[in-house]
Design goal:
With 437 residues, the chain is α/β, with parallel strands linked by helices. Helix content is 49%, strand content 9%. The protein folds into 3 domains: 108 residues, no CATH class; 142 residues, 3-Layer(aba) Sandwich (Rossmann fold); 124 residues, Rossmann fold, CATH 3.40.50. The strands form 3 sheets. Strands 2-1-5-6 form a 4-stranded parallel beta sheet. The protein has a 4-stranded parallel beta sheet with strand order 8-7-9-10. Helix 2 packs across helix 8, helix 6 crosses helix 8 and helix 15 packs across helix 17. The longest helix is centred in the last third of the chain and has 21 residues.
């Protein structure tokens, strides 16, 4: 029966999770090796042993026995995949906890922060982006402005990159200077029946039906451009589309899927570097990059930039993914993240800090206003600099320097007004922005 369930394609995410859970129940010996390597248990679970948590996980999936520890582990997951890589039985443990989340979702027992996010959302990439840039600066289509036309390369920006214009615009500059035939689209979770989303929020909440619908909608939009390849800028989008979507039978992906760093590394001869950067950068691996196996790609890409000395740090979680369910976990992890990185960057006498994760960058950036002797820069920004490209302002820094919400509103007014947002809409978005402080 197990061999029948573990197949190449599945009708839905729920069927995929069921197969992973069946494999877990068949093979797991509750040794706990998977969770000994997890970055979250000390923060989320306290003194409960890893082996005991896995025993409770098995009982939950077999008999429905509730467990506080299993609940906290499932919704506090960073999705780094370290548990799956560490399992001595070869079980894909991170997807087993996906099954746990889906069961709790069916019961209606999901964390309050996720419920609030679904019923009264403050997270909206369109409005966050609108507080950081004018419409004239936007060089991508969203769900409200999609006009499909055939392109060789469809560049999907995802959602988190959209509220980092100083990351997004250099990326588009690079592609234009490489003379790549492309169209860029981006968006975020469904809003008023529209959205361009990989399904990440629904995967985290356990809402498998909504994940399936979102995936089908996104792939349908991709296919309207008839691309030879889709280039993903977000490692979470890349993981879902390249690994999970390809296992879901209804999606029928018929185009090449590439991560942005992979695409640039394969076309490095088209990166016409015009100057030596002459800087030292500290590269911080992230959870999403580890899960998608793209850290080495980004590290190699940095090594191609003339005059750049690269120091690769150890993996450390900022707490951004667990923050979706448990903001209190983020409150515990982010000070450690910020202080550790600051110490390492200064000890290594680096000029720049970079990471492949936009959430990590957002988690760290408030710390920069305290006068650190280095700056955060995206990998795109460093490449664009070496190509003689434009330097884009990090407008987040202006907001973090503000002492009140009223001051942020005044600083951002020229942007949100130009995008047709009211002050009331902007203030609603501030709740999400300020949650990263």
């Amino acid at each position: 029966m197990l061999s029948d369930m573990l197949r190449a394609n599945y009708p839905s995410l729920e069927d995929f999770f069921n197969a992973k859970a069946m494999e877990f129940l068949d093979k797991c010996v509750s040794c706990g090796e998977c969770l000994r390597n997890c970055p979250m248990p000390p923060v989320v679970l306290g003194d409960v042993t890893p082996g005991k948590i896995m025993e409770k996980t098995a009982r939950f999936l077999k008999y429905g026995e509730d467990s506080k520890e299993v609940y906290l582990k499932a919704f506090g997951c960073t999705l780094c995949g370290e548990c799956s890589r560490s399992c001595l039985q070869g079980i894909d443990v991170v997807e087993v906890f996906g099954k746990v989340r889906s069961e709790y979702f069916k019961r209606g027992e999901i964390p309050d922060a996720i419920k609030q996010r679904e019923t009264a959302p403050t997270y909206n990439p369109r409005t966050i982006s609108a507080m950081l840039m004018k419409p004239s600066e936007r060089r991508w289509m969203d769900a409200w402005s999609i006009k499909p036309s055939q392109t060789e390369n469809l560049v999907f920006l995802g959602c988190t990159l959209l509220f980092h214009p100083h990351f997004t615009l250099p990326w588009l500059d690079i592609l234009e200077n490489m003379k790549v035939d492309f169209i860029a689209i981006g968006g975020g979770p469904i809003e008023k029946g529209r959205g361009l989303c990989c399904g990440f929020p629904y995967y985290l909440s356990g809402n498998t039906k909504m994940f399936d619908k979102t995936a089908e909608d996104l792939i349908s939009i991709f296919k309207r451009f008839n691309p030879k390849r889709v280039i993903l800028t977000c490692s979470a989008c890349y993981h879902f589309i390249n690994k999970i979507y390809k296992k879901l039978e209804p999606l029928k992906i018929d185009f090449e899927v590439k991560y942005c760093g992979q695409f640039l590394l394969e076309n490095v001869d088209k990166l016409e570097f015009k100057k030596s950067v002459n800087k030292k950068v500290y590269f911080q691996p992230s959870c999403g990059n580890r899960k998608a196996n793209v850290d080495d790609v980004l590290h190699k890409l940095l090594g191609k930039i003339p005059g750049l000395t690269v120091i690769k740090g150890p993996y450390l979680c900022c707490g951004g993914t667990p923050k979706v369910a448990f903001p209190e976990v983020f409150a515990k992890t982010v000070p450690v993240f910020r202080e550790f990185l600051t110490k390492r960057v200064i000890e290594n006498e680096c000029d720049l800090l970079t990471m492949g994760c936009q959430q990590c960058a957002l988690a760290f950036s408030p710390y920069l206003v305290e006068g650190q002797p280095f700056t955060i820069e995206s990998i795109f920004g460093i490449i664009n600099e070496a190509m003689g490209g434009k330097k884009y302002e990090n407008r987040w820094l202006k907001y973090w320097k503000c002492k009140s919400e009223d001051e942020i509103i005044e600083v951002s007014r020229e942007y949100f007004k130009a995008n047709g947002l009211t002050e009331e809409e902007a203030r609603k978005t501030l709740a999400y922005i300020l949650s990263w402080r």
